[in-house]
């Protein structure tokens, strides 16, 4: 186990709080070792010295980089807060609450909070912070966990109005026991994995003893994600009340569930059959240069209208390797789509469970996802995209009878794409933060009865 | 001479740049020793270790204070930038450019500037910075000044289109020789006063030798203020171009002229006679408690409608001392105004030259100013204020035949007051920053011909 460390000093503590939140809210994968990232227009590097399953990561000095990746100086908390605010505003649509005049910014909070010595825009209840600071070894942590589940969590769960699993999760679990476990792990007092396993055991016993709470505790034990509160990256955030006073109102988002132990095995992506007029085939990679399919995908990806959204205008050799890599795994299948005998577009079909989207919403094991590019410019804008999306979604649902949803995640700023998914029958279910964009989670659900 | 010092490290340099600019742009008086100030909602303290006649002050650590004036921690530059932006936005009207959506903030500049290692939102030309860094003693400074005036300043002045004194002043003088002199003074290389006297001598020689530049050089030698460029506190500031890119566009403002050696002596404030129906008398301070006039002013100042704008709802003893102090000096005269035999309001008449406004615009020696409060609530809102203001302005112009202007400086947010001045014949000439507000500079000019 790596012992988590905090560098001395309030400023590092403040930047670390912000960085942890930004990483969680943008669903950015974290691993021990060097980490480079871009927040708004600010490029940063740090070392992850403690990689936490609950997101309570520990960092070495967090440095601002110049244009050539050279460290300029240690990032100040207010600078990082400014970058986070600019980033969140740019990700969100112009009419989102966070972009409203008078919504304030994280900086307004910080200017207000610093004289009060407040460090976290969404601080935990003080008694939990006290526990996290005072518990001194693993045995004491286990005793605290036991008393917390019996004396506090169980009564609160039994008293919660059934149905509101997301609200209950944020209030009772992610901002309760899980946050404390993370702080103890970073302090080096416990192995988080041990305490998480103990918590899961206790929750299983609770669910068995009290069937009336299974609706919530079962969710905690099995859901791929759990609801937490965001303070940096939700388009619905505001930092000022209508009255003008500073008030950070957290908004819900989903984080990976560290209590879930078993991930069901699902087969790879099925190849759908599309409707009349359409054809679909996996890309063929042949020979040293990849062959004609690779050349075609490479050409499409370098067309301006595709490149601006996909940002993958790579050389042909890189596309050859990318496509060969996808074909060798179970995550996604790259395909070429034809219409009336002519190749017009590229789709990637993927299992959500194996995709970055798995961190973003409570997917079902068989959920499938789709990325799409109409490569031929003259095939755009006459409903071809939405017709193709409907054909692909219906084809996938037919090909995997256990799949209940086909999803996609276009950038919220890509109104044409969001509109095409909508026209194809996808519903906009949520807005999710990813490392470089906010995406509209678009969901095409299997019709409720028959087909 | 106090040797200016800069604490080691970029962050202190950055906060110092911002603090210097904020002090200059809000016309805040500075003297060596402790300095407390409030920027937006942020309360700060520092020690002024070098008090510069050109505004190039040097500071000790700049600390954030908590609610009980205890130091919390050293202010980060980005935090101070955030506070300055919030302050500038709050001072300005909602429809000012700085409050426009997309105008950006000083923080946007800082996030953009830090990777470029830029420190000042309105940096000097690089060759002048190099001079300010490299000159090593007073003799070398004098030689540089000589060559600068002959080789650079004079050609530039002679080539400038006559008439635009404010533009020429900022471009050639305040952001030229004066800035370099300040930097050399803070470095301890020169006594600024010596170099300023030498510059004034050279400018006098230039004006004598080249009558065609007297319009500009004469202004530099005699004007009470000189134009500089603001980056923190102008309501017309924007930090983003319409295209969205970061671009700090400085806006003109006036600073005290350190080249002006003689301040003409002017008599104290004359007591005007007002028109029919009006009366005006200086406040009488009598006896231990001040007597009935002091009591009256104290009562008015504690009425809500006056207190909200004057912020002087003091105890009666404090008002007695304040009024006695004013009556003992030549700066201002406190008066009670009557209408049709009834005391209705309070005015303070002042010589601009002796007032804080003297730092804010190029006043003439005999300019007079007025503060007004209608103390009796039932005398408000029927044109009484504007009628009184016109009567006072005309009375002052009649009482001092050398006075060409009567001025006032209501808060730009006090629309009722700004409107009353306008109705009374005052023109809105400028918006000026003061330590706790942006004021509309309202000017009642003597009619051009006769009277």
Description of the molecule:
- 2 copies of one chain form a homodimer.
- Among the domains of chain A are: 126-230, no CATH class; 278-445, 3-Layer(aba) Sandwich (Aminopeptidase).
- In chain A, 39% of the residues lie in helices and 20% in strands.
- The N and C termini of chain A lie far apart (52 Å).
- Chain A has helices at 10-25, 77-91, 106-113, 126-134, 138-159, 165-187, 192-209, 214-222, 291-301, 304-310, 316-328, 384-399, 415-423; strands spanning 33-39, 42-50, 58-59, 63-65, 71-74, 225-230, 251-256, 278-282, 332-339, 342-351, 368-374, 405-408, 427-434, 437-445.
- Chain A has a 7-stranded mixed β-sheet with strand order 8-9-10-11-12-14-13, sandwiched between helices. In chain A, strands 1, 2, 3, 4 and 5 form a 5-stranded antiparallel β-sheet that branches.
- Chain A has 13 helices and 14 strands.
- With 451 residues, the first copy, chain A, is of the alpha+beta class.
- The relative contact order of chain A is 0.09.
- At the A-B interface, helix 2 and helix 3 of A face helix 2 and helix 3 of B.
């Amino acid at each position: 186990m790596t012992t988590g460390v905090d560098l001395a000093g309030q400023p590092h503590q403040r930047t670390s709080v912000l960085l942890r939140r930004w990483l969680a809210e943008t669903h950015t994968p974290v691993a021990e070792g060097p980490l480079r990232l871009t927040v708004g227009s600010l490029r940063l590097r740090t070392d992850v010295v403690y990689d936490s399953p609950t997101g309570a990561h520990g960092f070495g000095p967090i440095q601002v980089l110049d244009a050539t990746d050279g460290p300029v100086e240690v990032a100040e908390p207010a600078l990082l807060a400014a970058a986070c605010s600019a980033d969140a505003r740019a990700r969100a649509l112009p009419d989102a609450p966070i972009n409203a005049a008078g919504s304030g910014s994280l900086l307004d909070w910080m200017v207000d909070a610093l004289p009060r010595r407040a460090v976290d825009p969404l601080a935990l209840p003080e008694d939990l912070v006290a526990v996290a600071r005072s518990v001194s070894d693993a045995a004491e942590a286990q005793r605290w966990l036991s008393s917390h589940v019996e004396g506090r969590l169980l009564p609160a769960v039994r008293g919660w109005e059934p149905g509101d699993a997301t609200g209950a999760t944020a209030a009772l679990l992610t901002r309760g026991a899980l946050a404390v476990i993370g702080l103890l792990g970073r302090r080096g007092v416990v192995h988080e994995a041990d305490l998480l396993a103990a918590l899961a055991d206790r929750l299983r016993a609770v669910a068995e003893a009290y069937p009336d709470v299974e609706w919530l505790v079962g969710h905690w034990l099995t859901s791929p994600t759990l609801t937490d509160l965001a303070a940096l990256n939700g388009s619905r955030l505001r930092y000022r009340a209508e009255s003008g006073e500073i008030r950070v109102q957290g908004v819900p988002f989903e984080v990976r569930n560290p209590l879930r132990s078993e991930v069901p095995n699902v087969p790879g992506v099925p190849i759908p059959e599309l409707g009349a007029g359409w054809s679909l085939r996996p890309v063929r990679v042949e020979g040293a240069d990849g062959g004609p399919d690779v050349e075609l995908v490479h050409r499409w990806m370098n067309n301006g209208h595709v490149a601006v959204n996909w940002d993958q205008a790579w050389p042909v050799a890189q596309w050859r390797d990318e496509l060969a890599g996808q074909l060798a795994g179970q995550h996604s299948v790259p395909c070429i789509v034809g219409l009336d005998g002519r190749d017009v577009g590229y789709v990637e079909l993927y299992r959500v469970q194996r995709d970055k989207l798995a961190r973003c919403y409570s997917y079902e094991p068989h959920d499938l996802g789709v990325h799409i590019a109409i490569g031929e410019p003259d095939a755009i804008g006459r409903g071809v995209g939405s017709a193709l999306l409907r054909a692909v979604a219906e084809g996938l649902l037919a090909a995997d009878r256990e799949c209940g949803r086909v999803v996609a995640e276009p950038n919220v700023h890509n109104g044409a794409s969001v509109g095409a998914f909508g026209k194809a029958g996808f519903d906009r279910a949520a807005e999710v933060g990813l490392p470089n964009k906010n995406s509209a989670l678009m969901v095409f659900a299997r019709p409720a009865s028959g087909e």
